Amino acid sequence: MLTIMIWSGMLIYWANDVYRLGWGNTTVLKFFPDSFYKALNIPFRLAEGMSLHFVFMWLFAINGFIYVLYLIFSGEWRLILPNRKSLKESWRVILHDLHIRKGLPPQKKYNAAQRIAYTGVIIMGLGSLLTGLSIYKPVQFHGLCALLGGYAWARAEHFILTVLFALFFLVHIIQVILAGWNNFRGMVTGFEVVANPPLKEPSATTIDSTELKENEEL
Amino acid sequence: MKNYKEYTISSAEIRKRTIISFLIFFVLLTCAVFIWKWLQKQPEDNGALKPLRTILNSDDVFFSNFLSSDHLAKTFQVGAAVHHPRVNGDVGMKSNFDTATWKLHLVRKPGDTLQISLDEIKTLPKTEIIFDFKCIEGWSQVTHWGGVKFSDFVQKYGLTDQSKMKYAGLVTPNSEYYVGIDMASLMHPQTLLCYEMNGKPLPLNQGYPLRLIIPVKYGIKNLKRIGSIAFSNERPPDYWYERGYDYYSGL
After folding, report:
1. B96-108 confidence digits (pLDDT tens)
2. Fewest C-beta atoms under 10 Å: which of A9, B83, B192, B203?
3. What is the domain extent for residue A23?
4. Does A68 fall in a domain?
């Protein structure tokens, strides 16, 4: 899902690729170099990109909507929403994961850093939806568009959110690989095997379908 | 806080559950790949893959039914307008064109065409608009235009019946560029038959003598150098629609 939206988004972005990282006339990073476009055969496919984007936007929205409903009605939101300790604890998690510091704070299904990241990505999804809507129909949703800083800003925000999605995904994949088999099995099956012997199944609620989907589409 | 249930099961059971889950996982994965491949193999309908075209057309219906066509595009002060608006398209404007003999061909119905000169059009009340002109490529510019409201034009030339039809098609004099637009968008109070830019007559490359300015649509629908206008209940041909873009292309 995400892959299709980002891919078609890049086909669209190519038609007016104005974003860069830098200041004044200094450019640190241009999105994207010509060689990148050429390698992926991106140029002159705006119409195709738009047709994909405006079809799969529905799946993106519906999928996200169902996921949020699931979180609410299953009570899983309690496991994902950061709590008072999360901000402080997340630093310890990050330091631990970077091998700077040993020892993790106690956690339930998700640790503090995960709570913040997973809640963040839901908000990002909503952000992509709203910024997307305001560049798709800026006259109809003029209030929303103005709230986001106008048409040009909304487009930039939509782009920045996409970059953040890509970064989230990258970290997510790296962490899954590092966490190993038992964790990955947990993502797919919904249970995690602890201790041995005896083998136990803390039958946590099954992993949500969105997470499954995310893996599927790749 | 919901508690986890922990219970002991045999490793055979764990194996079984793992295999079943991964089977489902891979079946779904394969399905996704096959659906994608199937989609790529579908025939095209006016430049877009057929299933995508069907949904794009439904998007139009959805948004035109659930949103109001009365919303106005945001307008700006004169000072905000750029002095040299970007010239982005010249389809339909490449051939020789005699500005002196130009007249707007208004097809009231098949076989009944009225020819109208620019001076006649200029006798109608002038409306100016300064708005953020949006290109489908993703850029936009605040630009300043002047002309006759399409709705005023309809009233003046007694086109009440025609304006009850679903669409109008606008075509350049050489018939190389053409757009089809739904009537609600054409009758929108900000839609102009435009003959001025920044308070001066339109430059040739911006569509002199007469162009369409329709702020509720992307630039591709703002046809330059109007040759004729005709009305229809069927979708009139549309240049960029035939090349894979959305027909409605509304904002």
Report:
1. 788 888 888 999 8
2. B83
3. 1-62
4. no
